[in-house]
Amino acid sequence: MVETHDHFVNRLNTLGRKHKKMTHGYSTKIGKDGLIVVKAKRRRMGGGVAIKFVLLLAIGFFGFKIFALSAVGPVTYNERLSKLENGTVIEKVGARALAIDPVTQSVAGSVGTVMR
Predict the structure, then answer these.
(1) Are the C-beta atoms of 109 and 69 separated by less than 8 Å?
(2) pLDDT digits (tens, 9 = 90+) for 76-110
(3) For residue 29, what are the contacts with CB-CB under 8 A and spacing of at least 6?
(4) pTM
(5) Residues near 62 by Cβ (< 8 Å), separated by ≥ 6?
(6) Domain ranges of the chain
């Protein structure tokens, strides 16, 4: 009796593991004998999520630069950057990252005409 109960518990644990794997997707196939076989799809480790996050962060950063440059104008923007360049090490790194590059300047010029 105990042996039968142990086998039953083992089968339940196995089914629980299979069910947990199938929550991420599964596919069904019909075998040669006509039996329907369900297999869990392989789970990819979130590499795509990290790439999307970094890409979204970069787009947000450049969007902020473009918006700030088009909102205050290049003269005021450069004055504020010069204040950052005279600050602490972190402020100097921020000033280097926020410096006006040709792509930001051209996009901000086109966006600036739309904003005004």
Answers:
(1) no
(2) 999 999 999 998 999 999 999 999 999 898 888 88
(3) 36, 37, 39
(4) 0.56
(5) 104
(6) 2-40, 47-115
